[in-house]
Task: structure prediction
Amino acid sequence: MPRILIFLPVLALSSLHAQKKPKLQLPYSNDFQKAEAGALPEGIMEIDGVFKVQKGSDDQQYLVMSKEPLSENAVLLGPSLKSGASLYAKIRSYKKRRSYPRFGIGLHGISGYRLRVVPSKGVVELVKNEESVKSMPYKWQSDQWTFLKLDIVPKGESWSVEGRVWNEGEKQPIGATVSLVHKGSPGQGKASLWGTAYSGREVEFDDVKIRPVSPTQ
Result:
């Protein structure tokens, strides 16, 4: 009997703890306005680099990647995915003389597909397993928001991978900026945000949205 009296409260506390942290589901969105300034929001995991929420001169809050360390930095966020999904985010970064940043978004974990903007080369590219597998010309604008949308959709036994990128003041393009067809599963895992501060300036992320997508014929 004494063992039962001690064990039951432990079960009750565990149940309450589980209720406080429900499993993340789609759709997912985060504009960082309700997050604590100066901290990394709950549910976001740093892989490399230093990320925290900061308030800008417009009194809006953004997830900001520090200019150090000078490496390929990333965070994971949202639910773990193995099905089709659409990821949207806007990213603002800055050049310094002839030095440029590099940034992007990704789906299905660290080794999944990434949509990456590389201003130093004037391209936007799809990256898989740390390698660029498709690229297209793109003219990036410094000091402005760049909008990125990555769609990975099952299509029979293959997957359609489409990336769209557009500058502040422009409309979202109807056709993909860069695309390819992937044979087999694209992987499994959380969505990701990426940045490399080659220009020695911070990189800002905002309005992250993840949506489920239906298979196409």
Notes: The CA atoms of residues 102 and 196 lie 5 Å apart. The radius of gyration is 19 Å.
